[in-house]
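subagent[fold] <- orchestrator: predict structure for attached chain, return tokens only, no commentary.
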Amino acid sequence: MNVNRTFRFIVARDHIMRGVFLFCAVFSIFALGCIIVFLFASGLPFIGKIGPGNFFGTEWNLHTGAYGILSMIVASLYVTALSTLFGITIGLFTAISLYRFCPPRAVAFIRQLINLLAGIPSVIYGLFGLIIIVPFLRDTISPSGVGYGILAASFVLSVMILPTIVSVSLDALNAVPKNYYEGSLALGATKEQTVFKVMLPAAKSGVFAAVVLSIGRAIGETMAVILVIGNSPVMPTSLFQSVRTLTANIALGALELSGDALTALISTGVMLFVFTLLLNISFSLLMGGEKRGKKRAAKPAS
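subagent[fold] -> orchestrator:
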């Protein structure tokens, strides 16, 4: 009798948990659908109203009704590319160091310190950049005497994406079978040759995932960027120049604007969504092509 009750309880619990998981999955899809409908239903008609030529123009002036976002698109791409370059260079070498070149007792401690960076609010990064990085660039590096701009924002963002790059890359390296490492050493390769020519290529899918996640974090960051980039809606011509990104443009006007100006911000959000979507599609195609290549290489020759 007790066995039947226990069995019925387990079956009922399984059904309940399946329902909970199904609800969470459906809710996630529903939330994404609502966001997509909101963005495109409001943003695309506005783009058609003012014309793609005006929307992708270089002038943003609310007083004259100019809603060109090309300068902000370019600034966003510059900041994202530069911060990702800095972050990947530092983060990947940090992950490699923790993987095989750091004393084992120090690995857990150092990794925990790096993970703490992810818990710091973005506004704190922005304040640090505003008080430390911007004056440093202005007084020591900038030829124009301006510390705000793309370089300052890139330095701040590169630190913010470090935990993602280090953690995901290190997990990918640790997931590679240990016999790869041991076999390479047995064949006479040095530790450095083994890590960079055997283990790192074997973990490249995980490293690519870290890159995609870091790009998504960098292109979507708002508060820290607002504090250090200057926020002038002009076309970037220098790393030391006050410019504005897409996310900063939305945040600066979302609570104050109305009418066509607010709709223009929603259209800006459409562009951000498209960028993120293209990034994820590109990553999926890249990984899919890699898997198909491995399958073809694994097939025996006829």
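orchestrator: received. Logging for downstream: The chain has a mean pLDDT of 86. Residues 71-289 form a domain with the MetI-like fold fold (CATH 1.10.3720.10).
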